[in-house]
Specification:
Layout: E1 6-8, H1 10-13, H2 16-26, E2 27-29, H3 34-39, E3 51-53, E4 59-62, E5 65-74, E6 80-86, H4 91-101, H5 109-113, E7 119-124, E8 127-133, E9 144-149
Parallel strand pairs: 1-4
Antiparallel strand pairs: 2-3, 3-5, 4-5, 5-6, 6-9, 7-8, 8-9
């Protein structure tokens, strides 16, 4: 049986210049109707995205955690967001993320130990990083979403999801 080789993303995605270059070179534009994404319970139905990974034959990981989906939003040459769908199997993997990224600004150590949070938020240089549950109502165990962007969250929200 052939072992899967993963392309590790951690050295790319926490650097704004490398992140932008990665999205521009490895993703292709797509047209999607926001309404259809919502109706089909797409994992990113609530967010704007306009790019998909160019090669479906490359497997990616983040700190050795396999990435199950990669999407991007390129607003202009300088504003970008990368979405990673991952399946965290326990808090040890969240601890690994915290060790690599730093302590999230939105939670105390006590709340973290009590698991009293819905998402974790970081500010690293010009990047906003969010780890949250992926709320797919047809598949509640669908995993987690990591969003890395150099633009405000309000610009990433699919406004059709408000209707």
């Amino acid at each position: 049986m052939k072992k899967t080789t993963y392309f590790e993303l951690k050295d790319i995605i926490f650097n704004e210049r490398l992140l932008t270059s990665f999205v521009k070179s490895k993703f292709i534009p797509i047209k999607n109707t926001k309404r259809a994404l919502l109706e089909n319970n797409h994992p990113l139905g609530s967010y704007n995205f306009n790019r998909v990974i160019r090669s479906a034959f490359t497997s990616y990981s983040l700190m050795s955690i396999p990435v199950t989906g990669l999407y991007a939003y390129l607003k202009d040459d300088n504003q970008v967001c990368l979405y990673l769908l991952i399946q965290l199997t326990g808090y040890k993997q969240v601890d690994t993320l915290i060790d690599q990224i730093g302590w999230p600004w939105n939670i105390t150590k006590e709340d973290y130990e009590l698991r009293d949070f819905e998402s974790l938020l970081w500010q690293k240089q010009q990047l906003e990083i969010t780890l949250s549950k992926n709320f797919n109502y047809e598949n509640p165990q669908s995993g987690n979403l990591i969003r890395i962007a150099n633009m405000p969250l309000i610009e990433l929200i699919n406004s059709d999801s408000w209707e």
